[in-house]
Write a structure and sequence with these properties.
Helix content: 10-25%
Shape: globular
Strand order of the largest sheet: 1-4-7-10-13-16-19
Oligomer: single chain
Largest sheet: 7 strands, parallel
Number of domains: 1
Structural class: mainly beta
Distance between the termini: 61 Å
Radius of gyration: 16 Å
Number of strands: 19
Order of helices and strands: HEEEEEEEEEEEEEEEEEEE
Length: 138
């Protein structure tokens, strides 16, 4: 019986990981690695020394803080409250077109494109965007 339960658990985990199931982040994650990540409405997700092997979706009114973290995919945060990168990197694009309070880049790098608008207050210190900046940040 234990073998059947173990097999079902492993199979279920494999199905979720192969169908795009994303873990939710509503607190601080330290020194770990995760696949796709979702930050639900209104939550604050802080990633310290964490690697995201996929994409991050930051929902409306949520905040994302990356501190010594890396993201191998894209960050979709178009209607987030805030996005802050400290000594961190995003290999893909960052969509922050309507971040409501601030987009902050401190000693960080975005390898892809940065999408923003005149509504977004960008604070940048010793950071770079290797791709195009689409839109105009304040």
């Amino acid at each position: 019986m234990n073998k059947i339960v173990t097999l079902l658990s492993v199979t279920t985990l494999w199905i979720f990981s192969n169908t795009g199931f994303a873990a939710e982040c509503t607190k601080t994650l330290n020194n770990t690695a995760v696949n796709d990540l979702n930050v639900p409405v209104g939550a604050v997700c802080k990633l310290n020394a964490t690697a995201v092997e996929g994409n991050i979706h930051v929902q409306k009114g949520a905040s994302l803080i990356l501190n010594n973290a890396s993201v191998s995919g894209n960050v979709q945060a178009s209607s987030a409250k805030a996005v802050q990168l400290i000594n961190s990197s995003i290999e893909g694009d960052l969509n922050a077109a309507q971040v409501s309070t601030a987009l902050s880049l401190d000693k960080s790098m975005i390898s892809g494109k940065l999408y923003c608008s005149s509504l977004v207050k960008l604070k940048s210190n010793m950071s770079s965007v290797e791709g195009q900046t689409i839109g105009k940040c304040k």
